[in-house]
Design brief:
Number of strands: 14
Order of helices and strands: EHEHEEEEEHEHEHEEEHEE
Strand content: 25-35%
Helix content: 10-25%
Strand order of the largest sheet: 3-4-2-1-14-13
Largest sheet: 6 strands, mixed
Distance between the termini: 7 Å
Length: about 260
Amino acid sequence: MLVSSWNVNSVRARLPLITGWLEKTQPDVLLLQEIKCQTEDFPALNFEALGYKTYVSGQKSYNGVAILSKKTAKDIITSLPDDDAAQARYIEATIEGVRIASIYAPNGNPLGTEKYDYKIDWMKKLKNHIKNLLSQEKPFILGGDYNVISTEKDVYDPKGWEKDALFSPQTRELWHEILHLGVTEAFRALHPEEIAYTFWDYQGGAWPRNLGLRIDHFLLSPESTDRLESCTIDSTPRAQEKASDHTPILVSLKS
């Protein structure tokens, strides 16, 4: 099973890039974040023409997540338990016996504001949900834009990002609490020392200067970790014209 995740920063603005990448890469599942459209406006027909069924939780102009799958998904939920779902940030379904979620966690900036409080509260709800998923002892893959810089290896300028919500001590502490529940962060498990990024800002020449962040992650249950074959970052789409500021990440599980 090949599962990919991509914050596309507007699915309609990036549609030709996404469909072209899908035709070339052929993942079994593609998780999308920041689709920036209401559910009914999602371009489902374009993806169905490529053999993908679509499952969407949209929101006008902001946020929004989706799951594209070659196989039928079931038992779909469109928010974290106990979340008011005012912001479309989570969708989860079972595909081929694996529980799979597309996640777009809050950014949280600036520190010391209601936005940061919301980020922390949302991450705590995610932590509680992961605890519940782990108790079921079934395979799961939770992929997406977590808006968390896990370690100093995951940011081009650690010192310069110390006061950012993505890299603040409280954010990182909570992130590592989630990891310590028993999930595996797939990329770092397979590439413990590699410097690689999934996001480059549009400003300041970040892409050509490789001033990036690694904030898109896959979290795997022990049952999925046992099948983990590879986890890679495909930076090719970021170099294309009118690209998203994020690039796809991919995880492969053995059958």
